[in-house]
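Hypothesis: this fold can be encoded by more than one sequence.
Test: take the structure tokens below, design a sequence, compare later.
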């Protein structure tokens, strides 16, 4: 390990250093659920498809593809110059050519119960099924070494976006056979960097892949960097201090008290730091919200008032979301004055999908109509985590101003998540990060067959009109018509209020001035193959 650190710290090699405050659990794409895992595996692997800067599907290992007119057959033509990383699992230690059969293996592995991948949902319910409703053996086919076919049970417009996810990255069977569960720390991919070492308490080191298949527009081999080093500093203030000292090349998602060290209350960078590093800010595929459990089978005695639409609307109107973003997030974010779909997606339209602005008088009237007032105050409990305590207390004051008494219940994240997933939390703070860049991914949270814990519908919202529109949108291949369906669905969510949209988050990145080619997108992807350090 000392040798690896000397490589990263004591030579003139171009080493990109970033920090991962949250835990990184695996370098196996089958478990690329959280940002730490996703960022790391993105440097090591590739898939059939990748997203371009505008989040549109672009060729990767698949150089081209055709979709059948009925939207159920996807035919991919693979590049024939992509090799797995050199590793002793291969003959003579040289990485072999990637073939269509490798994708068949990788995709079936995701679906295999013993893999226990968190990504099996990307194919379940979408690819071809047998008469028992199980994924069919024939849904993935290698016609030859460079031609792959995927069969869907019905059209699914965002499918190419799903194939760009790390879950769909290709892995070699030889590596899984050799290492089994230990593949998490012995990754073998096709990406711009090779795995070198992982000291679980301190750092991960990747080295440049000398056989990487991509080149830049001038024909120069990628990547430009010689190595990547990932550290694990979980204290946000220490992380920023390390960045200030030039020991980290970029920061993402400035949180907690560190935001006050860097930004003024209006969101501008403090004068002390002006020009010392680059700041990038853009809309994020992330909606922060409060969810309301609507299922009468869950918590039947707990807050029946929350099942009254007038109460839910009143709780919405009572919140000053603009002040929340300004004073508690240093103006980092966009107030949630529309529906669930965030501004980073084309169907977002605040004029067509108008949400709830701050109208406390309207909140009081709605509460009165629902039977609540000074002599019968509404009492509810808000479940959240310590990170959101300040925001929760701000909302508590807003609600108190309209006569609603809110108790704040702080839990550890795993316990909070488990209670929400299993319907044991009546009123809860959550967020939804887009898995792929399509509004369907956000609107799926309210489709009734998606009830949690098996699906993402954590509020157990059920509306027959909404379900019909959702099913229609999934099949609609005309982009303009599909967008109109998405907006119609989002209007229903605004009207019925199974959630209170608080704000839409923004991607915030701080980058050292000597870093070039690092571009943020609305999914906050981290791609280092075209990054340079000058």
């Amino acid at each position: 390990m000392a040798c690896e650190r000397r490589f990263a710290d004591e030579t003139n090699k171009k080493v990109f250093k970033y920090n991962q405050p949250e835990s990184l659990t695996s370098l196996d794409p089958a478990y690329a659920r959280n940002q730490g895992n996703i960022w790391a595996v993105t440097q090591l692997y590739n898939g059939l498809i990748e997203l371009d800067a505008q989040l549109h599907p672009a060729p990767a290992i698949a150089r081209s593809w055709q979709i059948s007119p009925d939207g159920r057959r996807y035919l991919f033509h693979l590049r024939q110059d992509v090799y797995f990383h050199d590793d002793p699992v291969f003959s003579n230690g040289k990485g072999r050519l990637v073939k269509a059969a490798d994708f068949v293996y990788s995709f079936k592995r995701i679906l295999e119960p013993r893999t226990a991948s968190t990504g099996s949902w990307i194919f379940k319910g979408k690819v071809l099924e047998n008469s028992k409703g199980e994924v069919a053996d024939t849904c993935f086919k290698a016609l030859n070494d460079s031609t792959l076919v995927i069969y869907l049970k019905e059209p699914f417009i965002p499918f190419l976006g799903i194939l760009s996810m790390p879950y769909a990255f290709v892995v070699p069977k030889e590596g899984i056979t050799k290492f089994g569960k230990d593949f998490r720390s012995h990754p073998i991919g096709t990406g711009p960097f090779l795995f070198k070492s992982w000291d679980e308490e301190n750092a991960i080191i990747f080295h440049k892949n000398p056989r990487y298949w991509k080149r830049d527009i001038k024909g120069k081999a990628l990547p430009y960097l010689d190595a990547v080093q990932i550290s694990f500093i979980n204290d946000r203030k220490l992380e920023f201090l390390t960045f200030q000292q030039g020991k980290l090349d970029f920061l993402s998602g400035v949180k907690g008290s560190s935001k006050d060290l860097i930004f003024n209350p209006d969101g501008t960078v403090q004068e002390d730091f002006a020009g010392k590093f680059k700041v990038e800010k853009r809309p994020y595929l992330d909606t922060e919200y409060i969810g309301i459990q609507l299922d009468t089978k869950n918590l039947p005695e707990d807050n029946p008032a929350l099942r009254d639409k007038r109460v839910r609307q009143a709780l919405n109107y009572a919140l000053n979301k603009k002040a929340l973003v300004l004073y508690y997030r240093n103006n980092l974010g966009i107030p949630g004055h529309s529906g669930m779909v965030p501004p980073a997606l084309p169907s977002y339209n605040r004029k067509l999908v108008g949400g709830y602005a701050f109208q406390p008088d309207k909140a009081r009237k709605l509460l009165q109509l629902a039977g609540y007032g000074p002599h019968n105050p509404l009492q509810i409990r808000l479940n959240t985590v310590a990170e959101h305590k300040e925001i929760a207390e701000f909302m508590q004051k807003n609600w108190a101003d309209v006569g609603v008494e809110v108790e704040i219940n702080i839990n550890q994240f795993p316990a909070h998540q488990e209670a929400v997933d299993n319907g044991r939390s009546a009123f809860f703070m959550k967020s939804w990060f887009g898995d792929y860049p399509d509004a369907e991914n956000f609107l799926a949270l309210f489709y009734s067959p998606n009830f949690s814990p098996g699906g993402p519908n954590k509020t157990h919202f059920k509306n027959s009109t909404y379900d019909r529109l959702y099913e229609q949108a999934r099949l609609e291949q005309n982009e303009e018509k599909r967008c109109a369906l998405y907006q119609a669905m989002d209007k229903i969510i605004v009207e019925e209020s199974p959630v209170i949209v608080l704000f839409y988050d923004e991607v915030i990145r701080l980058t050292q001035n000597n870093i070039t080619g690092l571009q943020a997108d609305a999914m906050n992807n981290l791609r280092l193959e075209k990054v340079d350090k000058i």
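The chain has a mean pLDDT of 93. The longest strand covers residues 277-292.
Hypothesis status: open.
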